[in-house]
Design goal:
Number of helices: 4
Number of strands: 0
Oligomer: single chain
Radius of gyration: 18 Å
Largest sheet: none
């Protein structure tokens, strides 16, 4: 659920989509990221609540779709010329050289996805292991 609504909460503001300094193509990519987050959330929820198919495959698909946006956000920092925040929005004491605050969210959500997948993973004697 965080994947699906997070982009709307984090990016529909003056620092992103309503930023007058951003060119239209940059805003296009914000919209693309928000939309892909919503689609990943829907795919994750589909597999999480799916009654048919192999349960292990469903849990794995749920985890992959649920974590993908955070993994891509962390990887985005590796591209040249990117910054975790526009300089005009830096608060006193913040620097673009510091570790991006979003990276903590990325690692935290990855940990949550891993723990949830481990909890949901079918055990040897689990009757729900059968496929439908």
């Amino acid at each position: 659920l965080v994947v699906g609504v997070g982009g709307f909460l984090a990016d529909m503001n003056a620092t992103h989509i309503y930023n007058p300094n951003w060119p239209p193509h940059a805003k296009f990519h914000v919209g693309q990221t928000i939309a892909i987050g919503l689609l990943l959330a829907l795919a994750s929820l589909f597999f999480a609540w799916r009654w048919s198919g192999d349960r292990r495959t469903n849990v794995l698909a749920t985890a992959i779709f649920g974590g993908m946006l955070y993994w891509s956000q962390a990887a985005a920092n590796l591209f040249p010329g990117v910054a975790w925040k526009d300089p005009e929005f830096l608060k006193p004491g913040e620097s673009l050289a510091q570790l991006p605050p979003q990276i903590y969210l990325d690692f935290g959500m990855t940990a949550l996805v891993v723990v949830a997948a481990w909890v949901a993973w079918p055990r040897k004697n689990d009757l729900r292991l059968q496929t439908s």
